[in-house]
Amino acid sequence: MGLHGIPVLLKNNIATKDKMITTAGSFALLKSVAPRDAGVVRRLRKAGAIILGKASMGEWAGSLSNCPDGWCAIAGQGQNPYVLPATPCGQGDAILVDHLKTDNIDVILSSTEEAAVLEDEFKISLNAYLKELVASPVRTLADVIAFNNKFSHLEKIEKCGQEIFLQAEATNGINKKTLFKLASMSKNGFEKLMKEHKLKCLGDSWVRY
Length: 209
Fold this sequence. Notes:
Elements: E1 7-11, H1 39-46, E2 50-55, E3 71-72, E4 76-77, H2 105-110, H3 113-132, H4 141-150, H5 152-155, H6 157-160, H7 163-169, H8 176-188, H9 190-197
Parallel strand pairs: 1-2
Antiparallel strand pairs: 3-4
């Protein structure tokens, strides 16, 4: 099905190779230049969609530790246009399938492996993205941390903090044993539940207001 003439706003961490800047809400990327359109952008353009601009977002997708949902240094506090008091992040519709039990949910919830792997992946992926940019004031996660410290008045670091960045920067690559343990928990937990009930996705059952 074509999207000819349909206007689209992109979240501001989706790269476009045009005059629009991809900043993830941070002044650190205000002068960055992406080398290419992101895959989803290429598909949207091919289908005929018109990319009108970039929408605000929680800075670094919420990775500044203590900032309100939807806040970023460049645009300030984002709002939910449908329910102003509600969080502007993570809204969507779904069919709720209730009363399902994951056999190993206690093991999953008490595990620290997921957070560790996310920190590892965050550093690796961000460094790779920043290195590939045609132009950028920052080239590594360490550069971003230094920028935030230097321009803390802009990035509100005293209020928001950057503990997640610091924890990620302290990592030294992904531990294969940790990945294996996570894969095992997923296979015997969520994946098993989805196959048994023929589900397309799983999500939490709480909404933030």
